[in-house]
Amino acid sequence: MERRTIGAGSLSVGAVGLGCMPMSWGYSGSRRRGEESVRAVHRALDLGSTLLDTADMYGPFTNELLLGRVLKERREDAFVSTKVGLLVGEQHIVANGRPSYVRRACDASLRRLQTEVIDLYQLHRADPEVPVEETWGAMAELVQAGKVRALGLCAVGARGGRRSDGPLHDATIGQLRRLQQVFPVSAVEAELSVWSPEALDTLLPWCAERGVGFLAAMPLGNGFLTGTLTPGEGFEPDDMRARHPRFTAEMMAANQPVVAGLRRVAARHGEGVTAAQVALAWVLAQGRHVVPVPGAKQERWVAENAGADGLRLTPRDLAEVADLPAAQGSWE
């Protein structure tokens, strides 16, 4: 697999990463299988998808424990990205950016992951009660202590910016400027996909101009862009898509032209090329500092996603994807 670099420190990873959250969090609990997920992680590493993206809140904690089973055997094959800053209660999630908590959380993640160092440690969310510079400073101390190699900011929650009059990622960019004054930001993780391209406007160029890596979260639109979901089929109550405004039966039906367009492009590239691979190839084409991190928990999906690395979209393909209708069911 092609290698790409993250940040000025030239951290090298496979061009397509693996989002591990679905193995333990966010999606239908009845479909989680620990042993199946472990095999999927091994398969990803075999194929060169070295970036494994997790967080202490996924589970909570169980996702890191699952990865630790693999890392115990194959640490040298993997690039480990985990996150800090969110605490999970029974019915709520709260931010905690206190320096003392950050230090304890890092040590706990290291134990669960069965590793001596975290390659990329991301701030999951800023704590509104703690100046972000204090949180980031504590994370920088972890780099100096040799527990972490590089720092990143997770901006997946930036959709809240749509409630203001400004562009979606203005607040995130302002925060990044503050962080850069304390310690270099090596990577930003934010949503980017065919049906959520907003990061292309300001956030992606900001990262490119500064040598900051961009981890594209949800590059398959929470599974919609794979074309494997059936409108009206419904989701289990613990599945976050059950509350997502683009996953009502009406909106899923209305957005089928997006998937149909991806399938048309795929068909031009030969038998076996899928809509999902086109969606990932589109993300890869947005810049060499971009690494899509599709979530998966089965070997077959991991292999399909990794196969997008070999798909090169033509100017005609890119133009056709750009002309696809905007997704309906927005967050406004």
N to C succession of SSEs: EEEHEHEEEHEHEHEHEHHHEHH
Stretches where pLDDT is under 50 for at least 5 consecutive residues are: 158-165
Which geometry do the CA atoms define? Answer: globular
Q: Summarize model confidence as the mean pLDDT.
A: 93
Record keyword descriptors for this entry:
332 residues; 11 helices; 12 strands; globular
Account of the protein in words:
The protein is an alpha/beta fold and 332 residues long. Helices cover 36% and strands 16% of the residues. It contains 11 helices and 12 strands. The protein has helices spanning 34-47, 62-74, 99-113, 132-144, 170-180, 203-209, 249-254, 256-268, 275-284, 299-306, 315-322; strands at 3-6, 11-14, 18-19, 51-53, 79-84, 86-88, 93-95, 118-123, 148-154, 187-191, 213-217, 290-293. Strand 10 (187-191), helix 6 and strand 11 (213-217) form a beta-alpha-beta unit. It is globular. It starts with a strand and ends in a 10-residue tail after the last helix.
Summarize the model shown:
By secondary structure, the protein is of the alpha/beta class. It is 36% helix and 16% strand.
Secondary structure layout plus pairing:
Layout: E1 3-6, E2 11-14, E3 18-19, H1 34-47, E4 51-53, H2 62-74, E5 79-84, E6 86-88, E7 93-95, H3 99-113, E8 118-123, H4 132-144, E9 148-154, H5 170-180, E10 187-191, H6 203-209, E11 213-217, H7 249-254, H8 256-268, H9 275-284, E12 290-293, H10 299-306, H11 315-322
Parallel strand pairs: 3-4, 4-5, 5-8, 8-9, 9-10, 10-11, 11-12
Antiparallel strand pairs: 1-2, 6-7
Helix pairs in contact: 1-2, 1-10, 2-3, 3-4, 8-9
